[in-house]
Every structure is written in structure tokens, then in C-alpha cells.
Amino acid sequence: MKYGIRRACNSIEALVMKRKRLGEILKERGKISTESLDQLFLEQNNKVIRLGELILERGLVDKSSLIGALEEVARVPYLDCTSVQCEPKALEAIPVSVAHRLAVLPVRYETAALVVAMAEPQNLAIIDELRFMSGKTISPRLGFRTEILDAIARNYGPVDPSPEEGDSASSETSDESSAEMEFVSTS
């Protein structure tokens, strides 16, 4: 009985503990200075970019140290998308347009879950959208946006042009067919 109560208290204590942020973890590990971090925060204010991606872009922290810190913050394992080969069935679950828009890469099925590399694996709205679309439980993995977007292009293959971007031949055909139309009024 005492063991169960102690265990429950430890679990509650772990939940109440403040979750550390990426910058704090990297500073504690001696990977980045306070000055560099402050400079990154200033840069980040003017851009729509995640801190981890900015750190990687600037080369301030080696990739493996950054991944370790990101995994600790997000509590989601990292998946290297630079060479991943996705299962065709997984790719069919999420349309390429959605994959681009959300920066997600459906990789494979594990039992009843769809494993998806995500730039924002903690974003519950994205996870819910993917769950609704695929009809499967989503098992998120952490990935860098640029690596995910490159992997989308590599795994989905060439994308058909959208109707707005259609070639001139298709627009000529639509012009011809509209020129041949005749409107008849009955009065």
C-alpha cells in the first residue's frame, strides 16, 4: 500500500515539474551561450521559424546535440527524413497537398498506428487532422521541416500541376470549347 502511494506521488510530482524549453536545455548542457540565445530570440521575432531550425541553420549547435535536446523538450523520438523510404500505403493515407501544408511525412504503419514525421509533433490540431484523414491513430516523430519537405518530394514523386497552374494546351482547349458554346434563350 505504501509503495503504491509513493509511486502515485512521484507520478504527480513528475507531472507538476516545469517542462524545460529548448534554450534552457542547451544552455545547461553548455552547447549555447546566453548571448547567442538572446540573439536567436531577436532574430526569431522577425521570422516564422522554430528555434531549433534557426539554431541548426546558424550551425551554433551540432545536429546530434540539438536532436537530443529537442527529443527531451517534445518527448517525441526523432526520425531522420534525409534517407527515409516511406511505405506506399502510408503515403496513400495523407494527400501530398496536406503533407506539404502541414510539413508531415507519413512513413509506415506500426500495428494500428500511422507513423508520421512532423515538424510540429506536439501540435494536437495537426495530429487530430491526420487522425481524422487517415482513420488511424497517429504515432508522431520529430523531424526538421526542410528535411521533411525534401522527403515529401522524394517519396511522393512529381506532383501534377494544379488547375490554376495548368499548361497552355489545356487552357487553349478550354478556350476552344467555350468559343463553341452557344447560349439559347427560351422566352
List keywords for this structure.
single chain; 187 residues; mainly alpha; three-stranded mixed β-sheet; 55% helix; 10% strand; elongated; disordered C terminus
Describe this structure in words.
This protein is mainly alpha-helical and 187 residues long. It has ten helices and three strands. Strands 1-2-3 form a three-stranded mixed β-sheet. Helix 8 links the parallel strand 2 (113-118) and strand 3 (137-142). The longest helix has 15 residues, at 2-16. The protein is elongated.
Q: From N to C, what is the helix and strand string? A: HHHHHHHEEHEHH
- Spatially, the strands of the biggest sheet line up as 1-2-3
Reported for the largest beta sheet, the result is: 3 strands, mixed
Please tally the helical runs, counting DSSP H or I stretches of 4 or more residues: 10
Instruction: Catalogue the unreliable spans.
Output: 163-185
Any idea what the shape is? elongated
Number of strands: 3
Helix content: 55-70%
Radius of gyration, whole Å: 24 Å
Mean pLDDT: 79
Class per helix and strand makeup? mainly alpha
Strand content bin: 5-15%
Assembly of the depicted chains: single chain
Distance between the termini: 90 Å
Please outline what is shown here.
The protein is mainly α and 187 residues long.
Summarize the helices and strands and which ones pair or pack.
Layout lengths: L1 H15 L5 H7 L5 H12 L5 H8 L4 H12 L13 H6 L2 H7 L1 E7 L2 E6 L5 H11 L2 E6 L2 H12 L11 H13 L7
Parallel strand pairs: 2-3
Antiparallel strand pairs: 1-2
